[in-house]
Amino acid sequence: MPIASPFDFRGWRVVVAGGSKGIGRAIALAFAEAGAAVSICARGQAALDETARALAAHGGTVHAHACDLGDPAAIEAWIAAAATTLGGIDVLVNNASGYGFGEGDDAWLADFNIDLMAAIRASRCALPHLAASPHACVLHTSSIAALHPRRNGPAYAAMKAALSHYTTSQALQLAEQRIRVNAIAPGSVEFPDGLWDRVRRDDPARYAATLAKIPFGRYGTPEEIAHAALFLASPYAGWITGQTLCVDGGQQLNG
Question: Active site residue: 21, 156, 164, 234, which one?
Answer without folding.
Answer: 156
